[in-house]
Amino acid sequence: MFDTKFAVVLREDLEVWQKLNVTAFLSSGIIGQKPELIGESYRDATGNVYNALSVQPIIVLSTDGATLSKIHTRALEREVAASVYIEEMFSTSHDAANRAVFAEFGPDNAKVVGIALHADKKTVDRITKGAKLHA
Fold first, then answer.
1. Within 13 Å and on the Cβ side, how many CA atoms surround 69?
2. For residues 112 and 105, is the Cβ–Cβ distance under 8 A?
3. Where are the beta strands (DSSP E) in the chain?
4. What is the C-alpha to C-alpha distance for residues 85 and 19, in angstroms, rounded to an integer?
5. DSSP reduced 3-state for 93
6. Which residues lie below 8 Å from residue 24, measured CB to CB, with a gap of 6+?
7. What mean pLDDT do residues 69-93 have?
8. Which of 26, 48, 98, 111 could form a disulfide with 83 if both were Cys (CB 3.0 to 4.6 A apart)?
């Protein structure tokens, strides 16, 4: 049905609250760059209106830190725009602080805990090789 894939890959050793937090942040980054992924508002049987949701399923995968680093590198090599969340961002409390701590690290030393991608299905599959469906 879709030629593209929307995937979030999480480091498997995160606490449950961290997995949920990172998934929400990373998904918002993809949606912010690709507004065409948002559908139309929802209406219930009595006419109440709710926010629109993603038109495409979001696949959540998990893997170890080493594989996640490889996934990060593959995304950069293939020039696929990604949302990335690093471990140090858990100690901040707002967007400006997140961006400041993120800027202190590069691909070689970032402790990536999550990455989200939206691209051609085959490209996303190649980039996320080694990750498995999140349990």
1. 10
2. no
3. 4-11, 42-43, 49-50, 58-63, 82-86, 112-120, 132-133
4. 11
5. coil
6. none
7. 97
8. 26
**In sequence order, what are the beta bridge partners of 85?**
114
Strand partners, 76: none
Q: How far is CA 10 from CA 23, 49, 63, in A?
A: 8, 32, 6
Burial of 103 (0-12, 13-18, 19+ CB in 10 A): exposed
State the pLDDT confidence band at 60, using cuts at 50, 70 and 90. Answer: very high
- Residues 51 and 46: their CA atoms lie apart, in Å, by 15
Structure tokens at 31: 């949606």
User: How many Å apart are CA 43 and CA 65, to the nearest integer?
Assistant: 41
How high is the pLDDT of residue 1?
84
Contact 96, 43 (CB under 8 A): no
3-state secondary structure 10-29: EECCCCHHHHHHHHHHHHHH
| Residue 70: closest CA among 102, 28, 112, 18 | 112
Report the alpha-carbon distance of residue 75 to residue 20 in Å, rounded: 22
